[in-house]
Amino acid sequence: MKKRLLYGIASFSLILLLGACGGNKKDTKGFDPNFSGYYIGQLPCADCVGIKTKASFFGDNKVAITSQYIDTDSTSTTEWGTWELDGKLLKALMPNQETYYYQQLSDSVIQMTDSLGESSDQLAEFYKLKKQVPLNAQNFLGSYAMDFGNEPGAYQQYLLVEPIDGLTDAVQVSFSSEGAGKGCEFTGKGRIINDQIEVSLNDQHDKMKSTMVIRFVDKEKTLFVFTSNFDDRYDLMYFCGGGGSLAGNYVKK
Length: 253
Fold this sequence. Notes:
CATH class of the largest domain: Mainly Beta
Number of helices: 2
Structural class: mainly beta
Radius of gyration: 20 Å
Number of strands: 16
Shape: elongated
Strand order of the largest sheet: 1-2-3-4-5-6-7-8
Distance between the termini: 39 Å
Strand content: 35-45%
Mean pLDDT: 87
Largest sheet: 8 strands, antiparallel, barrel
Low-confidence stretches: 1-23
Order of helices and strands: HEEEEEEEEHEEEEEEEE
């Protein structure tokens, strides 16, 4: 709901500016046949610092858009849709009948616009997404640990990310623990999309509909574990005893 509201506000503001100041419809190039790939940017937000936005456009006309609301609840949610070309515009058809429009500014930059391909000089810079090389399995592999101190016998909680033969977009993730307390235990397969690992918890428990998200919070050293939706966070306690949770920061060993 929050995301739909934001884009609704952004689109409405854009229309007002276009009406007041005149639309700025640039003579943009049509989308290159090889435009597909991974794009990132930071969109404006009505009630937060901004929305870190990551979008992967695939050759089979699928699109995955991940939104992370900065300085709010630390969640990052991925929505899947389809894309199609409409003249010089690309339309991303998303859930709940939302449609996002993009124009290609260069080989490495796309920009969100309105349905006519128009943008405002005041807002245009804030709606650009730049092409990047996405992380793959190799970037995530390794052993990570939560920092509970180094006292002898103290509780320790670990995350191990291992490869799956022949796959660069999927990994196996395992959580374990040692020391005082009942600890945590979990093993599952995660898909890498938009620089984060996503693990369906429904594969672990048929009553769970949530997604575990694992992503870096720094330069490939610390992994943050949480659910894609804040209200699902308690699902990560199911795999732990004594009130523990899989959620938290894990530093590479």
